[in-house]
Design a protein that fits this description.
The protein has 208 residues and is of the alpha+beta class. It has a single domain, classed as L-fuculose-1-phosphate Aldolase. 39% of the residues lie in helices and 15% in strands. It has helices spanning 3-20, 75-84, 97-103, 119-124, 139-149, 169-189, 199-206; strands spanning 30-35, 38-41, 57-59, 65-67, 90-93, 130-131, 154-157, 161-166. The chain is globular. The structure holds zinc ion. Zinc ion (ZN) binds next to loops. Belongs to the aldolase class II family. AraD/FucA subfamily. Keywords: Carbohydrate metabolism, Lyase, Metal-binding, Zinc. It catalyses: 3-dehydro-4-O-phospho-D-erythronate + H(+) = dihydroxyacetone phosphate + CO2; 3-dehydro-4-O-phospho-L-erythronate + H(+) = dihydroxyacetone phosphate + CO2.
């Protein structure tokens, strides 16, 4: 089986798993992988639970559609991540409920939206900057993501949702799932006196 065939099947398996667990809804959310000769991307207007490996969009390195259905209208988010992160092999973007809820909170630190609640969050996601809100389709959103993507594997789009890159599809999936769980914990802890990891504990994890 070729690397591209394996990648197509892995994207569809992940999409089905994400959809079945209610991590994104309707036709929201999109997944992509880098190939030796371009990118594979989930198509526009298709639920992640109903992906067909043969119909994924295949894009040239410059973003031109080579084969398959038209890519997600949010393909620019993925390309911004790949172009700024040479190590990114996969990108996942979801409208996962708790992450979206956190993306709407007032008075967060835009440099790092979520506190260090658990070690796994710190190790898999690290810091999470907030990208300012832009209407869908506004090219300024791509520029804003591009500005942060070089330094961060995960960003949170204000009033929208997370975009996470990984060195593999499973790494990107694990990170966005950890982010969603941490967003849920953050909301659960709201109003409770909480003991977050200390700065020294976070530093120790970052040096691992
Ligand atoms: Zn979106």
């Amino acid at each position: 089986m070729s690397a591209e065939t394996r990648a197509r099947e892995a994207i569809c398996r992940l999409g089905a798993s994400i959809f079945a667990r209610g991590l994104t809804f309707g036709s929201s959310g999109n997944i992509s992988m880098r190939l030796a000769d371009g990118y594979l991307m989930t198509p526009t207007n298709v639920a992640l639970g109903e992906l067909d490996p043969a119909r994924l969009a295949k894009l040239a390195p410059d973003g031109m559609l080579l084969a398959g259905d038209a890519p997600t209208k949010e393909s620019f988010l993925h390309r911004a991540m790949y172009e700024e992160r040479g190590t990114a092999e996969a990108v996942v973007h979801l409208h996962s409920t708790h992450s979206v809820a956190v993306s709407c909170l007032a008075d967060v630190d835009p440099a790092n939206v979520l506190p260090p609640i658990t070690a796994y969050y710190v190790m898999r996601v690290g810091t999470l900057p907030l990208v300012p809100y832009f209407r869908p389709g506004d090219p300024k959103l791509a520029d804003a993501v591009r500005e942060l993507a070089g330094r961060h594997q995960a960003v949170l789009l204000a009033n929208h949702g997370p975009v996470v890159a990984g060195t593999s599809l499973s790494a990107a999936a694990a990170a966005i799932e950890e982010l969603e769980e941490t967003a849920r914990l953050h909301l659960l802890l709201h109003g409770h006196r909480t003991r977050f990891l200390t700065e020294a504990q976070v530093e120790e994890l970052r040096s691992l």
